[in-house]
């Protein structure tokens, strides 16, 4: 969809749900069904596009906080245990379009492994929220 439409499509939302599974704010366990899809590179502020690569699930509370505090989000590189879905032994989940997550190029967790990690920073670059064990940039 890119910059032609601001809102994520149903298929993009479902792909984000498959990938993230819950609110991406570290320490929040709000289920994906209660989350909104946020533009990592904001639509207005950063001119970010509407794509699964620029999407992160946030519960309503944390989505509001990200905007209120003007936070930036960085998705960390894939932690150990992540692989393209076609190599995973876990059961395939289907997206709204009827295709597999791997067909859409989405990285998803192998069952029982660590999920994607996100770091939230303020306008000064200070880390506001990060996964346990994350070493801040120096």
Automatic annotation (TrEMBL):
<dbReference type="InterPro" id="IPR003615">
    <property type="entry name" value="HNH_nuc"/>
</dbReference>
<protein>
    <submittedName>
        <fullName>HNH endonuclease</fullName>
    </submittedName>
</protein>
<dbReference type="GO" id="GO:0004519">
    <property type="term" value="F:endonuclease activity"/>
</dbReference>
<keyword id="KW-0378">Hydrolase</keyword>
<keyword id="KW-0255">Endonuclease</keyword>
<keyword id="KW-0540">Nuclease</keyword>
<feature type="region of interest" description="Disordered">
    <location>
        <begin position="80"/>
        <end position="106"/>
    </location>
</feature>
């Amino acid at each position: 969809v890119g910059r032609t439409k601001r809102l994520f499509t149903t298929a993009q939302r479902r792909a984000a749900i498959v990938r993230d599974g819950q609110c991406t704010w570290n320490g929040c366990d709000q289920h994906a069904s209660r989350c909104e899809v946020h533009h990592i590179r904001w639509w207005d502020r950063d001119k970010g596009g509407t794509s699964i690569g620029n999407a992160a699930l946030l519960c309503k509370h944390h989505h509001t906080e990200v905007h209120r505090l003007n936070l930036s989000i960085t998705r960390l590189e894939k932690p150990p245990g992540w692989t393209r879905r076609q190599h995973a032994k876990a059961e395939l989940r289907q997206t709204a379009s009827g295709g597999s997550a791997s067909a859409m190029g989405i990285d998803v967790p192998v069952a029982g492994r660590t999920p994607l990690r996100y770091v939230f920073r303020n306008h000064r670059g200070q880390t506001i929220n990060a996964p346990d064990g994350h070493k801040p940039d120096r």
